[in-house]
Specification:
alpha+beta, 423 residues, 41% helix, three-stranded antiparallel beta sheet, 13 helices
Length: 423
Amino acid sequence: MLTLKTLREDPENVIARLAVKHFDARAIVENVIALDDRRKALQTESDALLSQQKKAADQIGAMMKEGRREEAEAAKKEVAALKARSGEILAQAEANNKELESQLVLLPNMPCALVPEGAGAEDNLVVKMGGEDPVLPEGALPHWELAKKYDIIDFDLGVKLTGAGFPVYKGKGARLQRALINFFLDRNTAAGYREVEPPVLVNAASGFGTGQLPDKEGQMYYCQVDDFYLVPTAEVPVTNIFRDVILGENEFPQKLTAYTPCFRREAGSYGKDVRGLNRLHQFDKVEIVRVEKPEDSYAALDEMVAHVEKLVQDLGLRYRILRLCGGDLSFTSAITYDFELWSAAQGRWLEISSVSNFESFQANRLHLRYRDASGKMQLAHTLNGSSLALPRVVAALLEDNQKDGYIEIPEVLRPYTGFDRID
């Protein structure tokens, strides 16, 4: 959530920066400023009424001591009227502040200066490419056919048990999933991230804190009886560990990693994008989260991008890194780098990670602060990244490593799988 200070200091800059996200913020910004002006006016009136009440109370005491009872009784009626007006002002202020808050949460985060202009995915900037083109055998198959051929992922059984988008991993397919999770977690902890195992159900306050609510409510699975949401990513519970926390100057950086199953409704998805593992409603993902002081957050972002890149390189996959343009940037992000893997069998790029800096946007919603060297309270910066999301990694591993009659397992995974091929 943008701060009132940011809006008031330079509203035209806020409007211009949000236009990069193709968001017309003028009406909301002007409304927020008008509501804030009213908030200040109501506070001034409330303070004046309280001052009058205190002064009148002192006068009533003096009158009573002097035996001026009739004057005191008249003054008491005036105080009662002042109290009634104060109650009205407080009610108006409460309603005004609620409206102010409801307007503020409609504004997305401002993109940083590095974010390129653009309307959508076609305008994202490719900043790096790596890896070699896989050499596939004649008649190479997409991963959903390989999964059926080697009996490692059963999409039809998932439909029977739950519905489309809930595959069942079997045999070496299940072991490959577990191997990747452990591989990613081990690499993350070796890089200084502390592992946590959070709940996969969160309350509405957690969804609001990281910006999933109210922006992405329609994409989240909701447990109505208990008022809980299934997590769309471990970012939500892990980042909310720091909700309402005040960190000390010496408590940075905070670096956490977690594995969770993730749940997304993905309403409106269809066509080739949903074949096989390309788009699921339940999937496994390992996440990294950082909390940094503002002056350190962009160096931390570069570290996170390099860390994810090394994971992809060690898996031996062809990849590219994109800096998302304004039109493709999420509601909460100030800047995002996407990682994509090349699927030679499908002839398309598959997104497998997003690494983002949210600057103080989430921290403001979370009330995540720290005391600087002077003792002044400041908002921290939050960052997160997929490290990594499994479905499309598995898809690329199966497709790009297929040989005549078997699938080869990358060497770095063999200590985790216990096998070097799927046949």
